[in-house]
Amino acid sequence: MTDDLDRSQTFDLPEGYQLLPWHRGFGRQVGPLFEKRGPDGITRAFRVEEHHTNGMMNAHGGMLMTFADMAWGAAVESDEDSWWVTIRLLCDFLSGAKHGEFVEGKARIVAEEANVYTVEGRIWTGERTLLTGSGIFKVIERRG
């Protein structure tokens, strides 16, 4: 399903975004996903393509929650090799994203104790907020 990328998925990206190199597993199935890293943290993104949509050609709610998990969890990454797992994810749906829109997401850490982080996050397209919410993530050791 994600082997057939069209031009907008691979080349029409806002400045600073790069393809997130997930070549296997679940991230590959819901991709392509993009990210930019900067002094204010990691922002992740995806363009709503047909395989992300529901019957109304909007981003499926399950895709938006999946993306929130991936975007908000990135807030706890200390480097590109950080691994983390989700303990809890709460989302409030405020708007939808149409086929073709570029969706971005990011979170900020609001608490930390013993490698367990609480974050507050937002998912948006353009000026429109799609989701807000919070998550609890645990940083774990990288496995071979």
Automatic annotation (TrEMBL):
Family annotation (CDD domains): PaaI_thioesterase
Positions of transmembrane segments: none
Q: Which domain of life is it from?
A: Bacteria
User: Which GO terms label this protein's molecular function in UniProt?
Assistant: thiolester hydrolase activity
SUPFAM superfamilies xref list: Thioesterase/thiol ester dehydrase-isomerase (SSF54637)
Q: Which intervals hold domain Thioesterase?
A: 58-130
Record-linked InterPro entries: HotDog_dom_sf, Thioestr_dom
- One Pfam family cited in the UniProt record for this chain: 4HBT
Query: This protein is called what?
Result: PaaI family thioesterase
